[in-house]
């Protein structure tokens, strides 16, 4: 039996935030491949609390200590975007494999520098665009490949960002500041673009504009208004490498009507994908289709085997899909998981819109 890949987290709380919600159950479902052994947080006391709560053998005094440890094979970075560049650079320069949450950097230039460094070091360096490993996306990819809709003519999408509406909490208020790199453009819109490209191929041209309808956001638990500089409207259009047309509209907040609606139109049929939220990376997606002589759309069920050995929760399941590819890449020296080079391509699409 192969030895387990030893994981060290930079930014892990035992019972809150994304790492605990998504990464812990994902890795728990892959316990034959991975073992979480250590953590470094913003303070040593915080790392000690997490290590004690999760029964981890190592609490590191700093990220620098973690990445230099012989006990760590894979460094997972799950902190806020402005810190990605420094921490990922530390891990790469220490010769560690790295998995970084999306966005990879605060803008295209940081992503390019990190991708170049990863290539120089020759390590497995991956990014968390987990809609690409969604079982529904994999099923859609198969339907397109098998010719269900014939030649794809167009793809159109509407999504709601959930955040970036009129109200927020103090913890999430940073999302409304475009300088943080964590906006509706870089999070739900970009995650969903990654999924669309998995199904329909690379987007080779993109254009559009950003809208700023709201100027302030109400921070309800602090009873204050703060500036809202991130876009709350995204209008995009473009073309896939196949020549198929692409259009999308993302809007801040949630709609009382439709929060995720994606249609793929082809020469032989159509697919319609709906969901509960515009974050394609953790939306519950439902698929309908019509092909050939069908009179109308019919429910299409993802085959049961697509779910084999994956968590029941959609959030953990999609993240586990990324980790399965990472394990294969580390063990077999392949490059199947979403890479830093893939991240640069996605950042390049976003760069057309400027700072979102």
UniProtKB/TrEMBL annotation:
Q: Which UniProt keywords apply?
A: Signal
- Source species, domain of life: Bacteria
Q: Where is the Gal80p-like C-terminal domain?
A: 140-275
Provide the Gfo/Idh/MocA-like oxidoreductase N-terminal domain boundaries. Answer: 5-128
InterPro entries referenced in this protein's UniProt entry, alphabetically = Gal80p-like_C, Gfo/Idh/MocA-like_OxRdtase_N, Gfo/Idh/MocA_oxidoreduct, NAD(P)-bd_dom_sf
What's a Gene Ontology MF term here? Answer: nucleotide binding
- Coiled-coil blocks: none
PANTHER family reported in the protein's UniProt record: CONSERVED EXPRESSED OXIDOREDUCTASE (EUROFUNG), GALACTOSE_LACTOSE METABOLISM REGULATORY PROTEIN GAL80
Protein name (record) = Oxidoreductase
Record organism: Alteromonas lipolytica
User: What phylogenetic lineage does the species belong to?
Assistant: Bacteria, Pseudomonadati, Pseudomonadota, Gammaproteobacteria, Alteromonadales
């Amino acid at each position: 039996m192969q030895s387990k890949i030893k994981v060290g987290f930079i930014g892990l709380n035992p019972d809150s935030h994304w790492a605990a919600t998504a990464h812990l159950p994902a890795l728990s479902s892959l316990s034959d491949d991975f073992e979480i052994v250590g953590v470094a947080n913003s303070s040593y006391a915080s790392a000690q609390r997490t290590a004690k709560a999760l029964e981890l053998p190592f609490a590191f005094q700093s990220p620098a200590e973690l990445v230099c440890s012989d006990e760590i094979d894979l460094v997972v970075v799950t902190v806020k975007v402005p810190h990605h560049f420094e921490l990922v650079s530390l891990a790469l320069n220490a010769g560690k494999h790295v998995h970084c949450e999306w966005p990879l950097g605060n803008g295209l230039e940081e992503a390019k520098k990190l991708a170049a460094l990863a290539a120089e070091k020759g390590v497995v360096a991956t990014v968390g665009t987990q809609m690409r490993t969604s079982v529904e996306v994999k099923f859609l990819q198969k339907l397109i490949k098998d010719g269900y809709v014939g030649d794809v003519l167009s793809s159109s999408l509407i999504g709601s960002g959930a955040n970036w509406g009129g109200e927020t909490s103090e913890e999430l208020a940073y999302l409304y500041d475009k300088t943080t790199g964590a906006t509706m453009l870089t999070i739900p819109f970009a995650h969903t673009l990654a999924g669309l490209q998995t199904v329909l191929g690379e987007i080779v041209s993109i254009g559009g504009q950003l809208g700023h309808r709201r100027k302030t956001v109400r921070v309800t638990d602090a009873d204050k208004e703060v500036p809202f500089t991130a876009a709350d409207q995204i209008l995009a259009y473009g073309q896939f490498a196949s020549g198929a047309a692409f259009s999308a509209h993302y809007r801040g907040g949630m709609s009382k009507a439709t929060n995720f609606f994606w249609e793929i139109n082809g020469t032989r049929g159509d697919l319609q994908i709906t969901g509960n939220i515009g974050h394609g990376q953790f939306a519950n997606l439902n698929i309908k289709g019509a092909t050939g002589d069908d009179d109308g759309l019919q429910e299409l069920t993802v085959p049961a085997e697509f779910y084999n050995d994956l968590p029941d929760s959609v959030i953990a399941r999609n993240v586990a899909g990324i980790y399965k590819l990472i394990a294969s890449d580390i063990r077999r020296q392949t490059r199947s998981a979403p890479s830093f080079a893939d991240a640069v391509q996605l950042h390049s699409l976003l760069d057309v819109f400027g700072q979102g």
